[in-house]
């Protein structure tokens, strides 16, 4: 990658006239950094609000034809995108690593998800968005054919974070596109490059219709996008989510919010401790703990607490941290955003100062870049920030609990409600605990796995969000519903309930309603 001082084109889309203007001297831009050492990869031009409006208008102009080609027509382009990703996977993985600091195995998750999700949505979309026939509950209305029709909103905006830059933008755009929408993505200004490259390829290499665009920048660009689109999906922090919701209220733009989490894990005394330990290490540290559904709090029953903590420390001490290129020789990479390292560091110091034991890790890496060691903290409690605030870093705090009831109470003692895990000897016991946890998902004897079951809704309770991705709702949210009533039989010139009114007609209607809604023959007949 070059280290350009001149801003690069924002979107890479052909015919995006202001790209040229923005790369001229004096144009606003931001720099994208390599988290492994803090050096500059390149700068990216900021899309101003008028430029955002222009891009959305362009997407809007292309959308009707995209809708009109139907599922089969769209399938063709989506499958071309899938094949392009397959052909360019190594290059995309490298690009992703460079801008995020991920290890190779974590970077590769992004393409894997998109490949699977394209096939899922092109296969399932037609079924999930098929017209639904509704049989009226009132027999008299059965002379109509009643249908629910799913129609795309038009232009969907996506504002996305830096932890999974492609999954949470292009990945979430897939069902919107399959449903017949155009999509404009505003990637995180921390990690926009791989998304820009995919949008470039959609236009220049695949030659697909003009329905997938990227605009770049921070809050101003994002705000302009909210103003212009017909539906907005936001993925990011709770704090920004609230700002987005307020902004969307100004135009009454429907939104879904995928926000932060503080996901608990409960380990019961009869659980398979080795599996629970391995799951905790991975669920807490994959992607350096920067996953909204990372395991961020572990509650372990007293009789197995010491064994669990010892084994978890030993496991985490075996992990290799570093920049592994394409060698798959490290498990934990850098963190992606410098301010996040500060948050993690502050929470660990707060726990340490309050008497928690840092068993391994617990400090920043030496030298430049955004490094924080994989960390296990024992003997924490709910007075500590690390158990109450989102950490979003490679830190696993473990708390001793007297029993399952206390574990459930503590697991629910949070303003978040994104995900959770339970490890129990008997999966049926795990399910009983899972059904009492206040969160959008619970994996029994597993971690994170629900994200790969695309038929399951994925979204948060409480302050973790509004709406879901995945499942039937994950694609239907990108559509308006239209209710149709269509006559089946020849029709009279007028209906009894239409004008003119008369005492005789209204009396008959009244008797009819009584007959239909009262219970018991005498009562129905008004006797
Ligand atoms: P963030 O809220 O700082 O930024 C997210 C996006 O919002 C970025 O694109 C940013 O440019 C944009 N933005 C910033 N200010 C804005 C404003 N005033 N109006 C509109 N948009 C604005 O979040 P982040 O630091 O990029 O990501 C980390 C957060 O994302 C964590 O809280 C994490 O839990 C959450 N997250 C949630 C999910 C989920 O599915 N629930 C998934 C991944 C990440």
Structural overview:
With 527 residues, this protein is α/β, with parallel strands linked by helices. The chain contains 18 helices and 18 strands. It has helices at residues 18-22, 49-68, 70-87, 89-100, 104-128, 167-178, 193-204, 219-228, 238-251, 273-285, 302-317, 338-353, 385-388, 404-411, 427-434, 471-476, 503-517, 521-524; strands spanning 29-33, 40-45, 132-133, 144-152, 155-159, 182-186, 212-214, 231-235, 255-258, 263-267, 295-301, 357-360, 375-378, 395-401, 421-423, 443-444, 465-466, 479-487. The strands form four sheets. It has a seven-stranded mixed beta sheet with strand order 12-13-14-11-10-15-16, sandwiched between helices. α5 (104-128) packs parallel to α6. The radius of gyration is 27 Å and the shape is globular. Bound molecules: nicotinamide-adenine-dinucleotide (NAD).
Which helices and strands occur, and which strands form pairs?
Elements: H1 18-22, E1 29-33, E2 40-45, H2 49-68, H3 70-87, H4 89-100, H5 104-128, E3 132-133, E4 144-152, E5 155-159, H6 167-178, E6 182-186, H7 193-204, E7 212-214, H8 219-228, E8 231-235, H9 238-251, E9 255-258, E10 263-267, H10 273-285, E11 295-301, H11 302-317, H12 338-353, E12 357-360, E13 375-378, H13 385-388, E14 395-401, H14 404-411, E15 421-423, H15 427-434, E16 443-444, E17 465-466, H16 471-476, E18 479-487, H17 503-517, H18 521-524
Parallel strand pairs: 5-6, 5-8, 6-7, 8-9, 10-11, 10-15, 11-14, 13-14, 15-16
Antiparallel strand pairs: 1-2, 3-4, 4-18, 9-17, 12-13
Bound molecules: nicotinamide-adenine-dinucleotide.
Nicotinamide-adenine-dinucleotide is lined by residues 159-163, 168, 186, 188-189, 218-219, 222-223, 235-237, 240, 243-244, 258-261, 292, 390, 392, 418, 460, 465.
């Amino acid at each position: 990658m070059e280290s350009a001082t001149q801003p690069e084109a924002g979107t890479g889309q052909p015919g995006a006239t202001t790209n040229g203007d923005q790369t001229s001297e004096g144009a606003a831009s931001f720099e994208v950094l390599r988290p492994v050492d803090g050096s500059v990869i390149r700068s990216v031009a900021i899309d101003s609000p008028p430029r955002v409006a222009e891009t959305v208008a362009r997407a809007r102009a292309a959308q009707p034809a995209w809708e009109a080609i139907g599922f089969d027509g769209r399938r063709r382009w989506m499958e071309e995108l899938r094949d392009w990703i397959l052909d360019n996977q190594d290059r995309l993985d490298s690009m992703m690593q460079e801008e995020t600091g991920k290890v190779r195995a974590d970077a590769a998750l992004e393409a894997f998800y998109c490949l699977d999700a394209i096939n899922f949505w092109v296969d399932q979309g037609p079924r999930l968005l098929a017209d639904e026939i509704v049989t009226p509950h009132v027999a008299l209305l059965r002379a109509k054919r009643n249908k629910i029709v799913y129609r795309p909103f038009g232009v969907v905006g996506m504002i996305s974070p830096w932890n999974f830059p492609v999954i949470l933008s292009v990945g979430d755009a897939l069902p919107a596109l399959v449903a017949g929408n155009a999509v404009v993505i505003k990637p995180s200004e921390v990690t926009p490059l791989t998304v820009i490259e995919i949008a470039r390829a959609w236009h220049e290499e695949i030659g697909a219709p003009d329905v997938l665009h990227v605009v770049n920048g921070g809050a101003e660009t994002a705000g302009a996008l909210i103003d212009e689109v017909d539906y907005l999906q936001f993925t990011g922090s709770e704090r920004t989510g609230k700002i987005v919701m307020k902004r969307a209220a100004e135009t009454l733009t429907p939104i879904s919010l995928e926000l932060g989490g503080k996901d608990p894990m409960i380990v019961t005394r009869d659980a398979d401790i080795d599996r629970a330990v391995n799951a905790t290490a991975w669920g807490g540290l994959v992607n350096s703990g920067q996953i909204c559904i990372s395991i961020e709090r572990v509650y372990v029953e007293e009789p197995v607490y010491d064994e669990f903590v010892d084994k978890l420390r030993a496991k985490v001490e075996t992990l290799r941290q570093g920049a592994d290129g394409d060698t798959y020789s490290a498990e934990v990479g850098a963190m992606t955003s410098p301010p996040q390292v500060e948050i993690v560091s502050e929470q660990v110091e707060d726990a340490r100062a309050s008497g928690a034991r840092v068993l391994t890790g617990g400090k920043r890496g030496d030298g430049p870049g955004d490094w924080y060691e994989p960390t296990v903290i024992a003997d924490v409690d709910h007075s500590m920030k690390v158990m109450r605030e989102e950490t979003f870093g490679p830190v696993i705090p473990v708390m001793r609990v007297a029993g399952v009831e206390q574990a459930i109470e503590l697991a629910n003692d949070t303003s978040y409600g994104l995900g959770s895990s339970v490890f129990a000897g008997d999966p049926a016991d795990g399910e009983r605990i899972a059904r009492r946890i206040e969160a959008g998902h619970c994996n029994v004897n597993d971690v994170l796995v629900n994200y790969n079951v695309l038929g399951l809704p994925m979204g948060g309770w409480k302050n973790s969000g509004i709406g879901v991705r995945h499942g039937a709702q994950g694609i239907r949210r990108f559509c308006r519903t239209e209710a149709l009533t269509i006559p089946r039989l020849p029709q009279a010139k007028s209906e009894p309930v239409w004008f003119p009114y008369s005492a005789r007609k209204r009396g008959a209607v009244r008797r009819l309603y009584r007959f239909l809604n009262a219970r018991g023959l005498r009562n129905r007949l008004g006797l």
